[in-house]
Here is the input.
Amino acid sequence: MWDISTMVAVFSIALSGATGAVALEEMEMESWSQSSESGEKMEKMAERVSIKLEIVNSCLDMENCTVDQDWLENKSERLQEKADKMETCKEDRDNCEKPSKKARKAMHDARKEMRDQLSDEEKLDKAQENLDRKKELVQSCLENPDCDVDTEKLQQALDRIDEKLEKIENGEMPEKSHRKARGQQGKEQ
Here is the structure.
């Protein structure tokens, strides 16, 4: 079973912008390849990718899912590519493709620059759009009997999404919970 911090991390990463998701995925691969506990870390990463793929594909399979079909297909394809890359890395760590630190920094800096250029209202609008998409994905997985993600965890994630949407309605920017969750996970170990 997945804990709530993993679920929140999964939804946050899965639904962030393409640039951010790709950069984060590449940083995860780099981090894994340098880790002395790589087997355990790789399994956790593979689990998160599997959850994301299950949720996205669940929405793709449902006729009443209103998330943009092109976005879903693109996300599903990227997640499948990542899962394949991870499998290759598990089998042969020496030939695992990973981005350079310079490339990761450039991606991070570009994303930060784009974010800094947005007004507060634009940031809230973008957060609202991402949370609405997350909510639709979670709901589609809850409604789909073929979605194998734990129902209780999905409901907890949905409750957190609703809390964040309420903050946005009050003009507040919700916290980036996936960063907090990852920081807490690292402190527990």
Q: What stands out?
A: Residues 38-61 form the longest helix (24 residues). The chain has one domain: 4-188.
